[in-house]
Amino acid sequence: MAGQTAVLQEIRDGRTLATSGFELLAQVGLARAYLAARGLKKGDRCGLHANNGVRWIAMDLAAMAEGLVVVPLYTRQAPAELVAMMKDCSPLLICCGDTALRDGVAEEWPEAPAQALFDDIFAAQTQISGTQPAKTQVPLNDSDPVTIIYTSGTSGEAKGVVLTAGNTAHMVSCVNARLDLLMSRREGQDRVFHYLPFVFAGSWMLLMTSLLRGSLLSINTDLSKIAQDMRTVAPDYFLNVPALLERMRRAVDEQLWQAGSLIQGIYSRAKGAWMRKHERKTRALDGLWLSLANSAIFPTIRKKMIGRNLRALICGSAPLSVETQLFFMMLGIPVLQSYGLTETTAICTLDDPRDYEPGRVGPAIPGIEMKLGEKEEIIVRGPNIFPGYWNRPQETAKALRDGWFHTGDQGEVDAKGNWRIVGRIKNLIILGSGHNIAPEPIEEKILAQLPGASQVVLVGNGMGYLSAIITGKVTSQEAQAALDRVNPQLPHYKQVRAFRLRSEPFGIENGLLTANGKLKRDLIALQMHAEIEQMYAGKGQEHSAAVGRQQLAAS
Predict the structure, then answer these.
(1) Which CATH code is given to the segment(s) 240-308+311-425?
(2) Alpha-carbon span 489 to 487, nearest angstrom
(3) Backbone angles phi, psi at 540, to 5 degrees
(4) d(CA 219, CA 216)
(5) CATH 3.50.4.10: does it fit domain 6-139+184-236?
(6) What is the pLDDT of residues 357-406, one digit of tens each?
(7) What is the per-residue pLDDT for 538?
(8) Rounded to an integer, what is the distance from CA 2 to the centroid of its chain?
(9) How confident is the model at residue 127 (pLDDT cuts 50, 70, 90)?
């Protein structure tokens, strides 16, 4: 980190608060002194329970420098879930960002270990008995654990993924090399915008890589102001999840739909022309509409949406729809996809910015082997693979077999080595006919047809056909129209024959989404058991009137 140069900045209440390399190191020193005064030693677990910010970063770096194992905790998770994680890993100290977070844990767990507030940790050194910060880092071997990150737990209790110093160093090196390709022929600092919680492995990897590169990492602290902060920062790149990019695409469509008929007409025709170009079905006037939009509409959208400097959006955590990736490419904004799990230190593949294909997540990064196992399951080995789950030898043995990590994801790979993720094997729906169906691609197609929908969840295990639960602001007529457009593209056994509407989306707060936004399908099926039964009994309010006709046509 370059001394006086700002390497971090928080965006709070419309102001940017910059922190230089020297200032960050000073804060790390204060935190190290506090930890040393508490008597924590190498290998002890230390909980980190705070929102994103400079002090979160300083606390994380300080704990690792002291040889501690950091356990990051997501502030939006229910206290009961957090307490279960902490009881599992037994931290000696929990560092809390504010009193509300501390009190939430204490109320749920009166016997909790000591909790320390950031305000006390980063106070003047004289308040911690004059202890001086250590001058050297506690030596770490590649096999030494540096963090335990708890997985989402889509179908059960969350498991603690142990990541080592070797895992982390290898992945930071790989991400840095990819970013070198993206930022080639540019001098000066990378400008990076960040809004995703540092508790997630991919987010943490970008943080560590940014510090290595001496980038200026701008941290959003208010999710309701992401769009505003994005424009203020005008970043070169930033990490995303598909949900945000989907919302951005829909917002543009809605705004242009309300624009004048001329602008809306050019935009709609150019959008159609772009999709046909990708499908190699170009029509005579497509070039004209794209030319008009590229000169009169797309530059304005880019500037208003993200700013003038953007080189690429980086997207991970879940599959991104091809339509959304193509939308941003149409605007002249590359979207580079990444695939990985917490157990793989966040990343297995990452698009090469010089050559990438929409709908795929790129090739395996250097040093990592990937292949297909039974049921087209992706299995991986390399220096990025975690050594095991905390205190769960049986779970570890199931996941790590013969040196390969079994991801649980179904995939395919093309001749160039570019991977596509089909879905989770455990999410496969097995119909009464014996057909095995990955729900995610079909859900994605239906969701693309419903701007007001939040989620589409397919059900149908053991049944004669698929049905859908659709959340958000959607009418029965809109849902049926979406199915009428999607079903003809699918073989009969993949067609969705009935649906149920639910106005309340599945969320973290109601316990039906994991911390990183994945559906808890088993819990959804359990909670909505009666509604699902009604769909198959033909009694659901939104049961498709076309079911009988489709069943006859398929037979």
Answers:
(1) 3.40.50.12780
(2) 5
(3) -70, 145
(4) 10
(5) no
(6) 999 999 999 999 999 999 899 999 999 999 999 999 999 999 999 999 99
(7) 62
(8) 30
(9) very low
